[in-house]
Amino acid sequence: MKDLPAVNWSGINDLYERFEASLPFNRTLITVMMAKIDEATEDCGGKGFLNIPALRKALPTPAWADMIVPDSTLYKVLRSEYFKCSPQDPTNALGEE
Q: Domain residue spans in the chain?
């Protein structure tokens, strides 16, 4: 796996667009990302959830390095309410380390 090129910040003035561009999701092809999520889910027992260490193992590139840094924006995003399974099942889809 290889990261796509880093974001060219010139021309990105919108605060929300800059935040989105700062995350590594846009540096990974969607087909690769889906396969890596499946890989990490299987590594966690194939029960529909995964944890951050398994995701990091599946995404070992520099763009994804901050996912294991608790004070990083990426870590906080991955642990946010938006990554929970569903409103009916409030467990964090990323599970617990």
A: 15-92
